[in-house]
Write a structure and sequence with these properties.
By secondary structure, the chain is mostly beta strands.
Length: 367
């Protein structure tokens, strides 16, 4: 009798602790088949290809070591370098430097660490995440400071739903029992945890989630690394929308532990990676990048035809994003361009990078 009461009490506690946890179900979703044939050049599947130099001039505040994230909204380009120069900069669409968003420091309007940023298209604000400082700084679209709110969740991705709830994508293992092994945390505007999604312990232990992509329709797409599944979340809940089929490349089960350094050095299969979560979404296209056997690939999936184009061309750009008109934007560094290429466009881009003193931004429209 006593044992039954104890078991019942434990079950009640378990249910109570899971009230704000929502599991993601991996049911039927649209399958994106990776083409076996690589498109010879990105220029074969795009039109209106052009580049925008991000000119430094004499202004050292506009200098970037790299571009690790890019967003384009209205008439502005927002670029982040959280590796070398630790900056979030705003340029116009001609590449003219407009403003540096905040600066590194310990002041109330400064960041200790530039972890990531995102555009809240609904409220028309910039969110700058500072993990070390335990806060999120909010700016208007011109980069002028508005306010700061505390945030103790250590996340590498952030986005906001139209109802004001904040999404956090967890890259590594959470350091809090409250978060558990969940990779997507939803909080209200007061930083209270409402929901937990993507339990890595039941799907893939080393799954991470740092790529959250807000859409102009108020939804957010996210794609946990190492899973090959893509989801869309809105005020009404989570939807499993795509499964990326890599069967002709490599079965994910063949992969060794990606965090096993010795295994990486000894096992050649460790170089064969699958979908790492990089993606961009629009009404007509879903684009994503991945690495396979040491090479980077970009896939452009046409939602209307169900067909995909596979490119390994360095002219694609990195950190792809869409603007409101459906144009693709990405960044290119000189180190990413092949030196043995006889392509005139590659030589043109390299010259533009050397002249501007910064990585450049490319933009194009998919055919």
């Amino acid at each position: 009798m006593v044992r039954s009461i104890v078991c019942l009490f434990a079950a009640v506690l378990m249910l109570a602790s899971c009230r704000n946890k929502v599991a993601i179900y991996f049911g039927d979703a649209e399958v994106i088949e990776i083409p076996k044939t690589i498109t010879e050049s990105i220029l074969d599947v795009v039109e209106n290809y052009s580049y925008v130099p991000l000119n430094v001039g004499d202004n050292l505040a506009a200098a970037l070591g790299a571009i690790t994230k890019i967003r384009v909204f209205r008439d502005k380009i927002y670029v982040m370098d959280n590796i070398f120069s630790h900056k979030l900069l705003i340029f116009d669409k001609d590449g003219t430097f407009l403003q540096k968003v905040s600066r590194k420091g310990k002041g109330p309007r400064e960041y200790v660490e530039l972890t990531t940023f995102e555009i809240d298209y609904h409220m028309e604000e910039i969110l700058l995440k500072d993990n070390v400082g335990g806060k999120v700084l909010v700016f208007n679209l011109d980069g002028d400071y508005k306010h700061t709110f505390e945030c103790s969740i250590w996340s590498d991705g952030i986005a906001v739903l139209t109802n004001g709830n904040i999404l956090h994508g967890i890259l590594g293992f959470p350091d809090s029992r409250e978060l558990g092994s969940y990779k997507l945390i939803i909080c209200d505007s007061e930083n209270n945890i409402l929901e937990r999604h993507c339990d890595a312990s039941i799907r893939y232990p080393h799954m991470s989630l740092s790529f959250l992509n807000p859409g102009y329709d108020g939804t957010v797409t996210f794609a946990p690394q190492m899973m090959n599944d893509v989801f869309r979340i809105s005020d009404s809940g989570v939807e499993h929308i795509y499964t990326i089929n890599f069967t002709d490349k490599l079965d994910r089960k063949e992969l060794p532990d990606p965090f096993d350094v010795m295994g990486f050095a000894q096992n050649p299969l460790a170089r064969k990676m699958t979908f790492m979560g990089n993606h961009a979404d629009t009404e007509d296209y879903f684009c994503f990048t991945y690495q396979y056997n040491g090479r980077g690939y970009t896939v452009y999936y046409n939602k209307n035809t169900g067909l995909a184009a596979l490119c390994d061309d360095k002219l694609c750009g990195q950190n792809l994003t869409f603007d409101e008109d459906g144009n693709v934007w990405g960044s290119i560094m000189e180190e990413g361009l092949p030196y043995d290429s006889d392509c005139e466009k590659v030589a043109e881009l390299r010259e533009a990078i050397q002249k501007s003193g910064n990585p450049i931004v490319v933009t194009y429209t998919l055919k």
